[in-house]
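Supplementary Methods. Inverse-folding protocol.

Structures were first reduced to a discrete structure-token string of length 393. This string, shown here, constituted the complete conditioning input.
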């Protein structure tokens, strides 16, 4: 790996080193890096691969004192067991990870929520939402009744180390033949002067091979999947009906954000802000309605950068909006949000006209309050080089 020296238009070699030589430890450093930046273990712009860390040093196994390093869920509701080794994977990491996957396979949905609630209370005491609400939002559900967490045979394993022994990689490849999703990520530290860089990349399976394998697995799952429950179908029907009415009224209003949108069965409707990955959203649920700006660019650091710069203008933005907003930095997840909500009974169709009027009024206010700040930040992003070639701004 090389560092580009712009003034001399040359490359400087980075020195590959070991974590232990730098004084880094597995639990205090590597594990914490991944807990705070789980996107390091996902493909850029692959929404389905996003991870939500729900526990560290999880020891909730009966009759054993063993602890798995990190426990997460992905966008399909699968539990993901993450085992970290520092400079060498060791011989037993696969067996260790499979044991934990076997233990976790028995966790019921309510247990998964309880585990995450304990995590929030210990590590994110400022989080106002419950574990169930955070998980539902991460999954894109209105609530946890819309889907199932930790279905049979869906547990995943991720192993992270600077070097993997041959017996580990061979076993991982063999396990994948039986439908067990195993990934090996190589974490390589580099030193340049006093700066330390870490390159984290998937080595087993290769990204190209994994895409094919996942596609085949999804096809098989779809073929075996039963049709949705009547309750879920009814909820989808109601949402489509609500959004059809909402879009009809939006088209006759002064708000043109959603002019090109069609009715959806989702509980949300999104429109571009002019900045890639930054969306204005309408949220319709059984208990409330929300308007929000969702910062969900592919890089979590960019989302945090945008959120912090907007938060610096909080007073001006809220004065223009006309009310206090709910600012959600969500530091350990890939998106940040600015939200305004109102309690409604979404299942009562008689309230729909009031909900729709409320949405149109406040999404218009939100757009007006954020239009200029977002335009200014788009220019700063271009100047910083964070906006890629061809990106809308």
């Amino acid at each position: 790996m090389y560092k580009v020296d712009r003034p001399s238009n040359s490359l400087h070699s980075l020195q590959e080193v070991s974590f232990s030589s730098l004084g880094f430890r597995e639990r205090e450093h590597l594990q914490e890096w991944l807990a705070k930046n789980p996107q390091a273990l996902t493909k850029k712009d692959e929404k389905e691969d996003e991870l939500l860390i729900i526990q560290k040093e999880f020891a909730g196994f009966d009759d054993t004192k063993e602890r798995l390093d990190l426990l997460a869920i992905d966008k399909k509701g699968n539990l993901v067991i993450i085992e970290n080794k520092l400079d060498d994977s060791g011989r037993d990491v696969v067996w260790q990870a499979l044991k934990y996957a076997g233990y976790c396979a028995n966790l019921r949905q309510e247990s998964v929520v309880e585990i995450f609630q304990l995590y929030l209370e210990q590590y994110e005491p400022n989080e106002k939402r419950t574990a169930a609400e955070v998980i539902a939002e991460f999954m894109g559900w209105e609530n946890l009744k819309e889907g199932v967490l930790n279905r049979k045979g869906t547990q995943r394993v991720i192993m992270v180390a600077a070097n993997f022994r041959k017996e580990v990689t061979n076993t991982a490849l063999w396990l994948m033949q039986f439908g067990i999703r195993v990934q090996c990520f190589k974490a390589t530290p580099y030193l340049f002067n006093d700066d330390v860089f870490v390159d984290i990349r998937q080595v087993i399976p290769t990204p190209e091979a994994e895409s094919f394998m996942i596609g085949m697995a999804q096809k098989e799952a779809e073929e075996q999947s039963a049709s949705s429950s009547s309750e879920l179908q009814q909820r989808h029907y109601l949402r489509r009906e609500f959004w059809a009415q909402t879009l009809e009224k939006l088209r006759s209003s002064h708000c043109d954000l959603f002019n090109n949108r069609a009715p959806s069965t989702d509980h949300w409707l999104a429109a571009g802000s002019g900045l890639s990955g930054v969306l204005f959203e309408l949220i319709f649920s059984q208990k409330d309605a929300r308007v929000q700006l969702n910062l969900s660019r592919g890089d979590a650091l960019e989302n945090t950068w945008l959120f912090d710069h907007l938060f610096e203008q909080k007073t001006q933005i809220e004065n223009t909006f006309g009310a206090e907003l709910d600012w959600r930095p969500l530091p350990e997840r890939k998106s940040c949000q600015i939200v305004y909500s109102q309690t409604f009974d979404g299942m009562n169709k008689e309230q729909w006209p009031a909900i729709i009027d409320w949405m149109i009024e406040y999404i218009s206010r939100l757009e007006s309050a954020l239009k200029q700040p977002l335009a200014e930040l788009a220019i700063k992003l271009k100047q910083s080089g964070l906006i890629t070639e061809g990106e809308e701004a």
